[in-house]
Specification:
With 196 residues, this protein is mostly helical. The chain is 67% helix and 0% strand. The protein is built from 7 helices and no strands. The longest helix is centred in the first third of the chain and has 37 residues. It is elongated and about 65 Å long. The N and C termini lie far apart (60 Å).
């Protein structure tokens, strides 16, 4: 009984953190960042889509049922759609959802395919950097322009361009790391499987 009580005391006074050796609070910021990295853009798209649909439905109700249409609903729905478009492009880019023509690429040797894949990645980085810089210029130019009905700075709307470019650049870094680790598949001929 004495030894059991001693072992219990040792367990209770042990400095080791519980649950697999993770500190009680140290792992939470990392987990939160991972959740934001994995689901942040998708969640923003879903929320903006909900805002756009709700705004359109509210406008229909006010116009045809109450006979008193809203003056700001069209702008809000339109600007939400702009953000949905650019953030959705980033989501599609991460998951390889953009259109790719691989008719010639699949006929090339694997080594040449790998070289072309790295070349395409480099060109994408260049294009996204240009989009980011030019998007920031557009935001600056429209910083003093306000929306007609919402009376918000139009820079908030145009900010969708550089934000989307920055997110796609981050996804491109992830893509490059996966390719360097050999975890990103090359194009496959018909019948060999789908493109990753």
């Amino acid at each position: 009984a004495h030894s059991l009580r001693d072992s219990n005391m040792q367990v209770q006074s042990s400095p080791e953190p519980p649950l697999g050796g993770h500190a009680p609070w140290g792992g939470y910021p990392v987990k939160a960042l991972r959740l934001v990295w994995r689901w942040g853009t998708e969640t923003a798209v879903v929320l903006l889509t909900a805002v756009m649909v709700a705004t359109i439905m509210l406008q229909v109700f006010c116009r045809f049922v109450l006979g008193n249409p809203l003056s700001w609903s069209e702008e809000l729905a339109r600007y939400a759609f702009v953000w949905i478009t650019f953030l959705g492009a980033a989501v599609a880019y991460r998951h390889g959802g953009h259109i790719v023509v691989e008719t010639v690429v699949v006929l090339l040797p694997r080594r040449l395919q790998a070289i072309l894949a790295w070349l395409v990645d480099a060109l994408m980085v260049l294009a996204l950097v240009v989009l980011l810089v030019q998007g920031l210029n557009i935001v600056e130019v429209n910083s003093n322009v306000e929306a007609t009905m919402l009376e918000i700075p139009m820079s908030w709307v145009y900010a969708s361009v550089p934000v989307s470019a920055a997110i796609m650049l981050a996804y491109q870094v992830e893509r490059t790391l996966l390719r360097a680790q050999g975890r990103l598949a090359l194009a496959r001929k018909p019948g060999e499987g789908s493109v990753a």
